[in-house]
């Protein structure tokens, strides 16, 4: 388990990486890799600040999941722009 300072250092080091938004979601929401990779733009509500986890990916295959919500929208805004 990472300490707060470890998370901050990791996110700072990864800030210019193309996968930064995925890293940010992983460490701030607890979402799993397959949930993050399964996100589509229609699952992101930037105005309300909500992510809807409607599917997950495993080995490149799509699996539908029950509705879940998570916050972490600011890096998604950055990624979208």
Automatic annotation (TrEMBL):
This is Phage integrase family protein. Keywords: DNA recombination. Residues 1-81 form the Tyr recombinase domain. It comes from Domibacillus enclensis. GO terms for molecular function: DNA binding. The keyword Lyase does not apply. The keyword Aminoacyl-tRNA synthetase does not apply. One of its GO terms (biological process) is DNA recombination. It holds the Pfam family Phage_integrase. InterPro entries: DNA_brk_join_enz (IPR011010), Integrase-like_cat_sf (IPR013762), Integrase_catalytic (IPR002104).
